[in-house]
Amino acid sequence: MALKYHVIPVTPFAQNCSVLWCDASRKAAIVDAGGDIDRIQAWVDSQGLAVEKLLLTHGHIDHAGGAAVLADRLGVEIEGPQRAESFWLDQLPTQGQMFGFPRSEPLTPQRWLEEGDAVTVGEETLNVIHCPGHTPGHVVFHSPAAKVLVAGDVLFQGSIGRTDFPMGNHQQLIDAIQQKLFILPDDTVVIPGHGPFTTIGAEKRGNPYVANPRYR
């Protein structure tokens, strides 16, 4: 029994939509269905997976823009982000206009998530970590058993999330990474919201924004 994962880059922003599934039950969750939902569903169907929920890390259009339509199509609920993210989810129509995305209606998930919550994927469990800074209600999902972190736009290979958007906070982001993510095991695989995978250890040692010399 194990948690498996596969990334499907979606939208013109090449956002890493993650499909997570329990190998024992074949039940799945889709994280950040920002768009291209036909392609997401086609891949899930090709693997014989049963999607039981959608998860959101935050409310930017490239991460959340397709979630409501896909959830409705699949007959499942949306969990996450943290409640402060209503600031961005309420503005999905405006975000779509601004960036030339298909229209998305304002979105309210069926379940807001808080620090310390857990979400299930089949027989697997993900821990919810609130990591504000890029956006106020941003959450990430950690599987201790699979040693994987779905990090959204908090931490990237050699970089961190932007904090120049409304409600962004650079120090909050740095604190969240150093105090909440860097305590995870070094061999934890990080699936960022864009770009290649990395590990917690690699970012602790070499990320110019948040690395600490004592880790080298």
TrEMBL record:
Its cofactor is Zn(2+). Pfam families: Lactamase_B (PF00753). SMART domains: Lactamase_B (SM00849). Gene3D superfamilies: Ribonuclease Z/Hydroxyacylglutathione hydrolase-like (3.60.15.10). Residues 14-194 form the Metallo-beta-lactamase domain. Keywords: Hydrolase, Metal-binding, Zinc. It comes from the Bacteria. This is MBL fold metallo-hydrolase. It comes from Chromobacterium piscinae.
